[in-house]
Amino acid sequence: MAAMAALQSSMASLSLSSNSFFGQRLSFPSPSSLPVKSPEKPCLIVVRLKRWERKKCKPNSLPILHKMHVRVGDTVKVISGDDKGKVGEITKILKHNSTVVLKDINLKTKHVKSREEGEPGQIIKIEAPIHSSNVMLYSKEQNITSRVGHKVLDDGKRVRYLIKTGEVIDSEENWRKLKEEKKKEKTEVAAAS
Q1: CA distance 56 to 163
Q2: Which of 76, 92, 171, 182 ranks highest by number of CB atoms within 10 Å?
Q3: Could you tell me the CA-to-CA distances from 191 to 179, 180, 182, 183, 184 in Å, in that order?
Q4: Whether 78 contacts 84, CB under 8 Å
Q5: Residue 127 pLDDT > 90
Q6: What is the dihedral of CA 80, 70, 172, 89, to 10 degrees?
Q7: What would the DSSP string read from start to end of the chain?
């Protein structure tokens, strides 16, 4: 503020001809009239991301979740990447970056430090996520990959189906199997701990 006032007074004291542009007095906008941008709000919801990954947020600080054509329990085929051609089942979906984790596919090596004294470190294989655009729904019966379509059945239920084969993916039997498998996993984890 003081620097701006000093600049104005020094420009006013210059004696140049009155008909030149430079002889006229300069008027600077006051700092209070300048638009000030407020810094964007940081995201309040914490998701397990790498330090260098930036997460896009909505104006209300919630993360942007992507719509995906696959769900947990679907059988898919990898259509690009190192594991191209492999068929597997989806075990986990990460909607904030539109990736999926497949059972026993895209295995990466991880070096784990020892946590307690005397315990050796380990080298383990973990399932890394694959982008959802690199997988396609797969029909086990006809061995065909297909895009997904949506339709409403006669009883009013909205289901997904394979466009090439017409096979309905979201049947109640599939959901029952998936729920039973989850219950088994929970009891195994509880028994192990």
Answers
A1: 33
A2: 76
A3: 18, 17, 14, 12, 10
A4: yes
A5: yes
A6: 40
A7: -HHHHHHHHHHHT----TTSGGGSPP-PPPGGGS--PPPPPPP-S-----TT----B-TTSPBPPPP-S--TT-EEEE-SSTTTT-EEEEEEEETTTTEEEETT-SEEEEEE--SSTTPPPEEEEEEPPEEGGGEEEEETTTTEEE-EEEEE-TTS-EEEEETTT--BS--HHHHHHHHHHHHHHHHHHHHH-
Q: What is the pLDDT of residues 45-62, one digit of tens each?
A: 555 666 666 667 778 777
pLDDT exceeds cutoff 80 at 65: yes
